[in-house]
Amino acid sequence: MNDSQSNGNATGPKVRRGKRFLSPSEKYEIWISLIRGEYTIVQAADRSGGDRSTIMKLRMVAGQGALDALASSKPGVRAGSGPDPELAAARAEIARLTEALKEMGVRLMLAEGKGAGAEWPGPAASAGGHQARIA
Fold it and tell me: Model pTM?
């Protein structure tokens, strides 16, 4: 054969298609149509203007990517979203209220004159309840 290769039907030189780059959304649509069984590899290649080997590679890469994503996902955890802003705000509020409660306890202790080592009254003696002792 010479520079003009035959395309198999002896009608003239084989014309090679130019490269066509598919966008991610086009690749996704092709992959979904293959998964659903709407198109064969050949039909998808003809429809997209690409090559059969490109469609085969797309199918393998998309399938492996889906498996990797499923393997790395964990229930209840949002991947890549970072800390939850509502959770961070709630934790900050808890810390603020905890400090305020400690301060109020100290003020109450000082206001009632309870110093270090002072005796605190025990539970009041009652006729019944879970704290009453049987003699």
Answer: 0.43
